[in-house]
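Problem 3 from the worked examples.
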Amino acid sequence: MADVARLAGVSSQTVSRVSNGYAGVTEETRHEVLAAMKKLGYRPNSAARALKRGEFRTIGVITFTLSTTGNVRTLEAIATSAAEEGYAVTLLPVAVPTQDEVRGAFSRLGELAVDAVIVIMEVHLLDAATIDLPPHVQVVVADSDAGDRYTVVDTDQAGGTRAAVRHLLGLGHRTVWHLAGPEESYAAQRRADAWRAALAEEGRFAPPPVRGDWSAESGYRAGLQIAERDDCTAVFAANDQMALGLLRALHERGRKVPDDVSVIGFDDIPESGSFLPPLTTVHQDFAEVGRRCVAGVLRQVRQGEAERGTTLVPTRLVLRDSTAAPAG
C-alpha cells in the first residue's frame, strides 16, 4: 500500500479508501491510484478485509442435484445476481436429501466463511416432513414448502399449470392428461395438484397421471403408454425434456402433434422453440428467481431482518405450434 501511495503521490489512507470503495476521493485521484495499483500488480487482500469488517462477500448455495434444468438455471441466476452485487458464490452439493446432511452442509459452509446461505430445496427430505434449518442463520430457501418459517422464493407453479390446462380446455379438449415429474419433487407435486384442481374446477375427469423422472427418456417411455390411448387428445407435461420424449413417442406411434394430440411443456428451455413442432410451454423466469434469492439474503446481511413467507415469481404461457383444437 505504501508503494502504491508513493507512485500515485497520495497518502496510504487515500489508497485504503480507494481499495475499499469508500467515498471522499476525487475521480482524478481514484484513477491515479487505480493506475498505480495496476502498474505494481497490487490487489486488496480479501481475506484480511473480511477479518477486519466481519463480512466475506460470499453466499453459500446448498443444492441436492445439478441434473435438472430448474436447479442449474436457478444456480446460474443466483451466481449472476450475486456477482452484480459484488459477491462470490460457494456451491455445496448434498448427496442425500436428509436433515443431517443439510445440517452438515451448513456446518461446512460456516467453516468456508460465507455471509449467508441459499438452499435450493427441490426435493422432499427422506427423514423429515419439513426442513428444519439451523437457528440464527441468514438464509433463503428456493423451491420448497418451507412456509412462513423462512424466506422462500418460488415460481408460481400452480398459476402456470392452470394457464396450460385452461388453454387446452379452451381449445375444445374434453380433458387433459398429465405426464408428471418424480414423486419426491416439490415442483412436480405442485404442478400435479394444480392440474387436478384445474380440471375439477371445470368439472372435468382427471385421467390417472403417467410419471417420469424429468428426463427425455422417461418422457419417451411414458409417451409410449399415452400413445396407446385413443381417448387422449391433450397432454400437459411437467417439464420440457419429458415433453420432448413424449413428442418422439407419439411420432413413432403415428399420432400427429397437434392434429391428434396437443402437448404443452413447462420451463421454456432455450431449445423448446426448436422442437418439432415448436413446443407450447410455461415460461419460468429463473433470472428473477435468482435475483430475489440474492436480494433476500443480502437484506438479511445488511439490515439484519428477514421477510418470512413465500414470494412467487409469475409464469407465462408461451404459445407455439404443439397445441390445437381436437380433430373433429
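Problem 4, a separate protein:
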Amino acid sequence: MPPHVAIVTDSTAYLSPQALTRHAISLVPLTVVIDDEAFVEGTEISAPAVARALQRRRPVTTSRPSPAEFTAAYEAAAASGAKAIVSLHLSADFSGTYDAATVAAKEAPVPVRVVDTGMVAMALGFTVLAAAEAAEAGGTADDVVAAAERRATATSAFFYVDTLDYLRRGGRIGAAQALFGSALAVKPLLRLADGRIELLEKVRTASKAVTRLEEIVVECAGAAVDGGAGSGRVDLAVHHLAAADRAAALAERLRPRVPGLGELVVSEVGAVIGAHAGPGLLGVVVSPR
C-alpha cells in the first residue's frame, strides 16, 4: 500500500529511475532552451548535448515547469490514494520552480506542503529520499517535512568550475558576483549556502582546485561523523559535466578517506544544472543521515 503522504520533486534532484520507482516519487521536469527550441530535461535532452551547445557558444537558457504541470502531478498523487503531498524543490534563488509549485498547491485536491530545500542536484536528491523514507514509515506531512528539513540542513555541497562565465551569464552567482571581479583568472571553489552560490576559495590551478575540493569534503564528512548527530553515516555524491574520468578518480580517492561512508553516487549532472555550470564542473555533495 502506498504511503498516505506522496512525495513530489523536480528533475534537478537527479535521482535514478530506480530510486524514483522504489520510493514512488513523482517528478516534474524543468526545461532547457537551446536556440529558442525547448527540450524537457531527462527525456528530450542530455547533459552532454548541453555541454556541446555551450562549447559552440549557442544560447542556452532554462525554464521552470508551469503550475499546470504541478497540478497534474498533484491530481495524479491524490487519485492514487495520497491524503497529503510534500513537494520538495531546488532553491527558489535558482529557479521559479518553487513558485510554480506553490501556485498549483492552492488548487490541489489534497493538502500540499511545498518546500524550498535550498538545495540542488543530489543535495536535493538525498533530501527527497529522507522525506520518502519518513512517508514510508507512516509519518504525517509534518513528519515528512521535518525529515526533509533536517537532511537539507545537514547537507553541504561544494563544487569547482573551469570558468565562472556560465554562472555569470545565467545570473546564478547572485550577490556573490562582486566577490569575483579579478577572480576570473583563477579557479574558484564554490559552495551552496542559504540556497545561494558563494565563493569558498580561489585556487591558482585546476589540479590544485580538485585537490583542495577533496580535502574540504573529507574535512566536512569527518566533522559530520565526529559530531555524533544522526546515524554516524554520511552519503556522498560526486557530480560532473563532461569530466567523467576526473569525477571517477575523485570518488575512488574519497572512498577510503571518508569514515562512516554510506552511499557513494557518481553521476553526470542533468541538462539544467549543466547549462548554468558549464563543461568541467566537478562537485561533491556531503549528506549525513
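Solution to problem 4. The first strand starts at residue 5 and ends at 10. The radius of gyration is 18 Å.
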